[in-house]
Specification:
about 65% helix, about 325 residues, 12 helices, MetI-like_sf, globular, 2 domains, single chain
């Protein structure tokens, strides 16, 4: 009698590597990418700390030798046995010109972004978006030359109109002369940051969930109602981020402001008359001819601008964190 055939069992599967069971990356590429990412983050922190330390050390030397109040003094005289200098005028000019630029640029940029993303036909939207992106790459000195040779001569009529109707406020009173004032700087900065805010806002609006828009249209909403109820709430954080990017450029702009502004260490109530200055413009115009102590004083003003930029970005992050809206990606 034949014996029953033996059933050969397959060899047991090999156990997975311990490294894959523990969830750790085993591929060399993953290790390299992790190391590069971690190193890049650490390098960024080290660079920022080095910049802050350099600015602080040089600023302490200058402020300790200042014979006036650095924060409230209205003059800038770093020569002589008793140097006196302060940043009151520079802080005023930097903040006011940047606020004017944001007040003009952000609404216009959001409108252009909405037109490109939701209103313009595709044949027009693509070239228009390309032109907007191209404007963001124009060098600052080009804007400055255009502002000095074209914008300034053509603002006389606008300034006269503002003086006729709003001169009673004092803010828009205008005397005769070339309109090289903070309001001119604000208009030029608005033109410069417009492409940045528009490009980022456009990309954010294009990421709005299509299901939300189609649902609103199916319920009978108009195009504006769809934008107001679906697109703008979704892109609010992105618009704030775009605005902060534009504000960062406005705060630190140098050559364009130096080309257009007629600076003086005087805070003028009227925005249409010459007066004021900015941190970046003052550093650019005085650094080459300053002695070592004068350079330290300019570096101290740069530290103030550095702190203002950090505070603005920190406030923007707080606003974005508090205003996060529902996104279709979270569903």
């Amino acid at each position: 009698m034949n014996s029953a055939p033996s059933i050969s069992s397959a060899p047991p599967p090999s156990a997975p590597p311990a490294s894959s069971v523990s969830g750790k990356a085993v591929r060399p590429g993953d290790r390299i990418f992790l190391g590069l990412s971690r190193g890049s983050g650490i390098a960024l922190l080290v660079i920022m700390a080095a910049i802050a330390a350099f600015l602080t050390v040089r600023s302490v030397i200058a402020i300790s030798g200042d014979h006036a109040n650095f924060l409230t003094y209205f003059e800038w005289n770093t020569s002589g046995p008793e140097p006196k200098f302060g940043i009151a005028v520079l802080a005023f000019g930097t903040v006011v010109s940047s606020v004017i630029a944001m007040f003009i640029a952000v609404p216009v940029a959001v409108g252009i972004a909405l037109f490109i993303s939701h209103y313009a036909p595709r044949r027009l939207a693509s070239p228009l978006g390309y032109v907007i992106d191209l404007l963001a790459a124009v060098p600052s000195i080009i804007y400055g030359l255009w502002g000095a040779l074209f914008l300034v001569p053509h603002l006389t009529g606008l300034f006269s109109w503002l003086d006729d109707y709003f001169g009673w406020t004092g803010i828009f009173s205008y005397a005769d002369g070339a309109p090289r004032a903070l309001f001119t700087v604000g208009i030029l900065l608005a033109i410069m940051i417009l492409p940045i805010v528009t490009s980022v806002s456009r990309e954010v609006f294009l990421q709005a969930p299509k299901m939300h828009e189609e649902a609103a249209l199916a319920l009978g909403a108009t195009r504006w109602e769809v934008i107001r109820m679906s697109v703008l709430p979704f892109g609010r954080s992105g618009v704030i981020s775009a605005s902060m990017l534009g504000l960062g450029r406005a705060l630190g702009e140098t050559m364009a402001v130096a080309t257009v502004l007629s600076p003086s260490f005087l805070i003028n109530v009227s925005l249409l008359n010459p007066g004021g200055g900015t941190f970046a413009q003052n550093i650019a115009s005085k650094f080459s001819e300053a002695d070592e102590f004068g350079q330290d004083a300019l570096i101290a003003s740069g530290l103030v601008l550095f702190v203002i930029t950090l505070l603005v970005n920190g406030a923007a992050r707080m606003i974005i964190a508090r205003r996060k809206e529902y996104s279709g990606a979270n569903a």
